[in-house]
Design goal:
It is built from 1 helix and 7 strands; from the N terminus they run H-E-E-E-E-E-E-E. The chain has about 120 residues and is of the alpha+beta class. It binds 2-acetamido-2-deoxy-beta-D-glucopyranose (2 copies).
């Protein structure tokens, strides 16, 4: 709900019902937005060997993150931040299947295998 809509609703509510106005809790954020107070776990790139536009993934360890539209099905390499590893899935929501690719901070993600090159949709650190 946009702020203007909330204000309009509030205004109408106050003129018609003087009882306490209860604001609905904000909708949960889509999980591909950068979250506050979470560590940067991984950098992924649109080209192999860490070239091209970079996506930096920030999340709690173990939390599944869906990639934003401009990086979904658009990543070719990745490097975990020191001490982390990262797994990518071809489906959203880290859906369990036999197809996933895990890389570390030491070069194992320099070139995503063909089956997930330009196909990663979610990741987990
Ligand atoms: C994939 O990444 C390239 C380079 O950043 C960008 O130009 C392109 O728009 C992206 N594709 C999509 C579908 O967003
Ligand atoms: C990841 O892939 C392995 C095989 O490489 C499979 O055994 C495992 O179940 C997969 N895990 C998930 C969460 O998809």
């Amino acid at each position: 709900m946009k702020l203007t809509t909330i204000l309009l609703t509030l205004g109408l509510g106050l003129t018609t019902a003087p009882s306490t106005v209860v604001l609905a809790a904000p909708a949960p954020e889509s999980n591909y937005y950068q979250q506050a107070n979470t560590p940067d776990i991984v950098d992924m790139f649109v080209n192999a060997n860490y070239y091209g536009d970079k996506y930096t993934g920030s999340a709690y360890e173990g939390q599944c993150v869906n990639l934003p539209p401009n990086f979904n099905d658009n990543l070719s390499s990745g490097r975990a931040r020191p001490g982390y590893h990262c797994t990518v899935w071809p489906d959203a929501n880290c859906r369990t299947n036999k197809w996933n690719f895990t890389f570390d901070d030491r070069g194992s993600g320099a070139r995503f295998p063909d089956w997930i090159n330009d196909r990663a949709s979610s990741w987990r650190g």
